[in-house]
Amino acid sequence: MNEAVPQRTPEAVEPKTLVEGAYQRLRRDIIEGVHPPGEKLRVEHLKDRYEVGAGTLREALLLLVTDALVVAQGQRGFRVSPISIEDFEDITRTRLLLETEALRQSLQLGGEDWEASVVAAFHRLSRAEQKLGDHDSLAAEEWERRNRAFHEALIAASPSRWIRHFQHILYQQSERYRRLSLFSHPIPRDIHAEHQALFNASLARDTTRATSILTEHVLRTLDAVKLLPAEFFAGKHKS
Amino acid sequence: MNEAVPQRTPEAVEPKTLVEGAYQRLRRDIIEGVHPPGEKLRVEHLKDRYEVGAGTLREALLLLVTDALVVAQGQRGFRVSPISIEDFEDITRTRLLLETEALRQSLQLGGEDWEASVVAAFHRLSRAEQKLGDHDSLAAEEWERRNRAFHEALIAASPSRWIRHFQHILYQQSERYRRLSLFSHPIPRDIHAEHQALFNASLARDTTRATSILTEHVLRTLDAVKLLPAEFFAGKHKS
DNA sequence: TCAAGGATTTTTCTCGAGATTTATAGAAGA
DNA sequence: TCTTCTATAAATCTCGAGAAAAATCCTTGA
């Protein structure tokens, strides 16, 4: 298989180096909003919080540029990437372009192993969705993880490493926005039913139906975020 | 417009920092094959060649990870990303998926400014193609630059920063392969005619024809690279 | 009160050296 | 001769300090 594409770290790889450790924790904090969009990321302050040297922290920030979660401006340091409703619309549509194509390939090429892993991922996701009723932030975190695992399992049989690479970046981006919509706007959607339908169509290898359900599914999140008040996207903080 | 996507440096931006300078020169050298695919990139050696400190060079290498031209393996340094025929096929098809969509959007939304810049880019490219007959490596380099500018001008009116971002990465990747095919296999294609047809269809806003010409155009390069002997893709050097 | 200029503080960028880890070469044993 | 272990060499990773740039504050003058 094609080794030239940088494969993402499958969620929780034990960091082999201090840079990787700081990178993982910083990424988590940015996605979770500890460092809000637009925030200036000062190396001198952050090196204490993450308990590494200045040079090491700089390298971690540089790695986050790869994920487009941080932007570097020469001679003017680093910032958390800003967010906007236009950006999320762009993310969503580009992600759909890639993910529907990957899903098509996956449904066509996926073998028994792929089927088994999809069944397993769907099962795990269903369990997490049962526990989601009460506003437990730990359960929400687990759901987020399994939701990602389910979507990635669906397209795992696609032979295109590049599509999966870009999909991963976009999914990660959309996590920041999804988090916003969860906090402010308890969505009345029956997400489990959507996932069930997507699961059924995928195992039935019904490409047309699966891609159409996926599209609806993702666009519905876009609509939910669009309902948010504009203040959420101000995001040009100083500190 | 959407500021959240890291916009690529438009070819030759004056580097504001030593890291950026080393990054640009390293990128050029990797694309041109000075550092062949798979080569180990030892910081201690490279810092002399590029005349910067060790830490600075490490940062430049980290930036190249963003372009997927370098892979970092924790505790085991850096390598030039390997190449393979499967990878190029993947690059080409993913690039077509993105670039045809961007072209569709561009033809639909592009205004007078866009038209003017496309005309200008096509003109510059045509001039470079006239001078391409003799095997002048300087002219080939200029052609490569203008070819890229033409393709990027065509899709510049697309509102999707993410598509353009990914397209840029993939185009950069394909440059490494295109260079291979130029050196070994003087292609008998009439590239200028293909560009002319693409240009005509685009200005006529004939979306169907333009995307189909673009697809043929890009796939033809894929075929040319496929004809190369497999030795070109060995690429697991030690030094 | 406001604007402009300059001095001070903060922050970024850069480098070299020490500590760890990995890779290499050689010796010992089967 | 081949494997395994050990010692040596090489490379990576990490840190703190100094130089350069940017941001901030303060004074001065209209």
TrEMBL record, chains A, B:
InterPro entries: GntR_C, TF_FadR/GntR_C, Tscrpt_reg_HTH_GntR, WH-like_DNA-bd_sf, WH_DNA-bd_sf. Residues 16-83 form the HTH gntR-type domain. It comes from the Bacteria. It holds the Pfam family GntR. One of its GO terms (molecular function) is DNA binding. Keywords: DNA-binding, Transcription, Transcription regulation. This is GntR family transcriptional regulator.
